[in-house]
Specification:
The protein is built from four helices and six strands. By secondary structure, the chain is an alpha/beta fold. It has a domain of about 80 residues: Ribosomal Protein L15, Chain: K, domain 2. GO terms for molecular function: rRNA binding; structural constituent of ribosome. InterPro entries: Ribosomal_uL15 (IPR030878), Ribosomal_uL15/eL18 (IPR021131), Ribosomal_uL15/eL18_sf (IPR036227), Ribosomal_uL15_bac-type (IPR005749), Ribosomal_uL15_CS (IPR001196). Part of the 50S ribosomal subunit. Binds to the 23S rRNA.
Length: about 150
């Protein structure tokens, strides 16, 4: 092996393979599909793990099991007290609307939860759907108020 060989042919932006553009391209005539058969026809797809040559596919032999309720549950967006300390001034109101207007929350969610990680020294009025016990305790200890929306 030649040590220089390692880097040959490696490009940052590789051109797409143009199939069916003549024999000189190396992908002409049958366009890399071989001769005849199901795979040579248009519209043919092979499912990953789907067809096992006539044998029963593995995913059909294994039993279906379990249920996941995640699709129907509420999306909860969690924010720590440390972020409120960093982004808000004393006397400010923290609510889902103010969080969105300041660009702190960009995702879509159903419920907002305040968590107690960090320290709070400012007096804030915090409105959210849920509060952890430590977060509510720290907000009240700093002289602020906790309101469930």
């Amino acid at each position: 092996m030649i040590i220089d060989d390692v880097h040959r042919g490696i490009q940052k932006h590789k051109a797409p393979k143009r199939v069916g553009r003549g024999c000189g391209s190396g992908h002409g005539k049958t366009s890399g599909r071989g001769h005849k058969g199901q795979g040579s026809r248009r519209g043919s797809k092979s499912k990953p793990g789907g067809f096992a040559g006539g044998q029963m596919p593995l995913f059909r032999t294994v039993a279906k099991r379990g249920f996941n309720n995640r699709a129907f549950s509420d999306a909860v967006f969690a924010i720590n007290i440390a972020l409120l300390e960093e982004r808000f001034n004393a006397g400010d109101e923290v609510s889902p609307e103010t969080l969105k207007s300041r660009g702190i929350v960009k995702a879509n969610y159903d419920q907002l939860k305040i968590l107690g990680n960090g320290e709070l020294t400012k007096k804030l009025t915090v409105k959210a759907h849920q509060f952890s016990a430590s977060a509510a305790e720290k907000i009240k200890a700093a002289g602020g108020t906790v309101e469930a929306v």
